[in-house]
Each structure stands twice: as C-alpha cells, then as structure tokens.
Specification:
This protein is an alpha/beta fold and 250 residues long. The protein has helices at 44-51, 83-86, 93-98, 107-120, 136-149, 166-182, 194-200, 228-232, 235-247; strands at 6-15, 18-28, 33-37, 59-64, 67-68, 76-79, 154-158, 186-190, 203-207, 212-219. The structure holds adenosine-5'-diphosphate and magnesium ion.
Amino acid sequence: MPEPLLALDEIAHSYGEREAIANVSLSVEEGEIVAIVGPSGCGKSTLLRVAAGLIEPTDGTARFAGEPIVDVPAGLGVVFQDYGRSLFPWLRVGANVAFPLEHLTDRSQRAERVSDALEAVGLGGQDQAYPWELSGGMQQRVAIARALARQPRLLLMDEPFASIDAQTREDLEDLILDLHRSREVTVMVVTHDIDEGVYMADRVIVLTAGPAHVAKTIHIDLPRPRHQDDTKGSIAFGRLRTEVYRSIER
Ligand code: ADP
Ligand code: MG
C-alpha cells in the first residue's frame, strides 16, 4: 500500500479549555477527492487548519507525504471561505496570485506560474484587475489560482463556495473537478452542503457534533466525469445524499 498523501492520526485540538476536536483519524490517498461534513461548530475548520499546518494539534500526529506537518508544507494549497478577507485589496490579481511565490527569484518563471494559474481558473488576462473589481465567484477563482500557483499536490478548501450564489457555486464545483482531472491534484474539501460533498467526492467523511470524531465514511461510487444535472438527478445520487444526511447529528 502506498503511503496516504495526508494522514491524520488521533488528532485532538483544544483552544485553551475548549475542546474543538476530540479524536480524528483519517487519511486522504493521492488522487482522491474527500469531502468533510459535520454539524456547525463540530471542528471542521480546526481540522483543516491542523492539516494545513496553520495550528499544531494538542494531540496526535499529522503527516503530509510521510513528513510531519509544520507550517504550510510546500505541495499544499489552501482556499478559505472568505475570499473578501483572504485576497489583498491593494494588490492586483496577478500580484495576489504571485504572493506565495516570492521564493522564486526567477521573475519570468514567476510570471509564467501566475498566468498559468489564472488561465487554469478561467481568468486569463485578468492579472491587472483589482480583486474588488471582480464578482464574488471570480474573486474565489483568484484565491484558487493563488493556491494552484504553488503547484500543490493537495488542495485543502474550507467551505470555499459557501458565500457564493447557487449558479456560480456549481461552476466552481465543476472547476475543481476539472482541475482534479487535468492537474492531478488531490482535494480535501470541508462543506456544509451535502449535495456539493456527494457531487464532488470519492468519499464523504461525516464528523460527529463537537468535539469531533469520525462518525462515518461513505464511499461515493458515482461515475466520473460527473455532470450537474445528470449526476445530481440520478437515483444513486439521491440515495447517497440521504445516507449522508441521516449520518449527521442535528
Ligand atoms: P466548524 O468549522 O465545524 O464550524 P470550528 O473548527 O470553527 O468548527 O470550531 C470548533 C469549535 O472550536 C467551536 O466550538 C468554536 O467556537 C471553537 N473555536 C474555533 N476557533 C476558535 C478559536 N480561535 N479560539 C477559541 N475557540 C475556537
Ligand atoms: Mg468552519
């Protein structure tokens, strides 16, 4: 068995006295899309911060490609829900995407990475715009481009489309599926939208109410490529979404 790309082993995290995650073990294999769902406040964002190396767990071990996770490892890209706060309003789109590339001293290489990443999210030629000149959906595309510019093996996303209208959200779900296929990027996405999780994922991991542990893993054996109407309209999809829905404590 090859080593999982992301391995979280008996992770616990407390903010002071407040226990956010009790004991979470899960792994993500290279090439998978894994969706994490669970009740509001159960510790999903905390888990994602641990996986991203943004916070240290109070207990357990987190490994990326076999190495303990410290800081944000190279090979890892992160996208948050709140694009309004994650993009720098005083920097143009190109400079926002270039921001995590300051270690690349070769300017032409950096420029190439930026235009490639913007191209990949459908924003080719928008590098001179300011984020606030763009719609919410386009701003989130910029945030995705910024994560892609690092050429990540693993893309971590925390409710990335929660603040985006339904039509645009579907376009962005499909963008992620395209990137997963064309760039062979592994994806772990936190979502509170069950349909979104089932539509995108190979596996949906359901967390219990906080402090979280894993309640259930549901394998999503829907064929790929998936299509918004055909996939979400299928009987198999309906069955899976019901199974996920019933697994979430309310
Ligand atoms: P979710 O993303 O599932 O809604 P979070 O991981 O954001 O859950 O939060 C889990 C628990 O930890 C909640 O009770 C929340 O209030 C608490 N929490 C989250 N972030 C902090 C923080 N920075 N300081 C203190 N408590 C926090
Ligand atoms: Mg959250």
